[in-house]
Amino acid sequence: MNNATSASAEHQPIIVRRSLMSTAWRELRRAPLSAWFGLIVIALYVFAAVFAPVIAPYSETELIGMRNEPWSMHALLGTDQLGRDFLSRLIYAARNTLGIAILTTALSFTIGGVLGLLSAVLGGWVDQVLGRAVDVLMAIPQLIFAMVLLSIVGPALINLVLIIAVLDSTRVYRVTRAVAMGVVVLDFVEAAKLQGEKLGWVMLREVLPNILPPLVAEFGLRFCFVFLTISALSFLGLGIQPPTADWGSMVKENATLIISGNITPLLPAGAIALLTVSVNFVVDWFLHKASGLKG
Predict the structure, then answer these.
(1) Contacts for 141 with CB less than 8 Å, ≥ 6 apart
(2) Residue extents of the structural domains in the chain
């Protein structure tokens, strides 16, 4: 009897995983074409970022010819202003830009999410202090504030990540607090508090699971804003620094080619736009599913 019970318990996780996989596949099959387009594009970007050293013809810093060479079999997209292969740098930029954007977004969600949950669960003076501090930071345009701070402390990578994460965490705080305020007043949260559950338990086990759908969607949107902010700062010379490949700096460094009718500088700009649109397609679909609407 015990052996049968043990065997049944061992098979339960497998059954649960299969059920989750079948449910996920069923939802994907019902996804609109826009969501499929977004998922495929994101998958291609991730593939390029992960396998950049394998699929790129050259390294991101290797000089392969003269400056601004036209497209050829030797350099499919020509060379940049220093004679480096443009295609290789475009591929490596996916790794650099996406990796830093994901790291920054994750850090901003950690900061803003924790503070937003604390503000909603504790309320009182904690909510007031955090709310006023966020109001002050949000009163200054984010890009201008980031430019000022980076000009003071220097555009090192760690400074770039920390500054953008802290500034963007204010938006995460607002969203987290707003959705959590509707949960903390429910009976099961009050019951957990009366049972003497610790603050961490209430935040992570009672409130957080019930606000995950809007936070997951917000993560996608915030990633787009962080991604665009990093690209804009790189274009202005305060983001990812040379010789590291980055789409924003690639547009700036080769912008003069557009005057002569060379569309190569538009390719990194197009890569930025395509990824932003694709992520928004997926986020829109996820929000539609999370809302419970049919169709």
Answers:
(1) none
(2) 1-30, 92-291
Distance CA 104, CA 160 (A): 9
Cα–Cα dist 170/108, whole Å: 8
Sequence-separated (6 or more) residues with CB below 8 Å from residue 286:
213, 216, 217, 220
Cis amide linkage into residue 214, ω under 30° from 0:
no
Instruction: Tell which CATH architecture fits domain 92-291.
Output: Orthogonal Bundle (1.10)
pTM of the model: 0.82
Q: What is the number of alpha carbons within 13 Å of residue 167 lying toward its C-beta?
A: 22
Q: How many residues does the chain have?
A: 295
pLDDT digits (tens, 9 = 90+) for 142-174: 888 899 999 899 888 899 999 999 999 999 999
Q: What are phi and psi of 84, to 5 degrees?
A: -90, 150
Structure token pair of residue 49:
């970022």
Handedness of CA 206, 211, 216, 219 (dihedral sign): negative
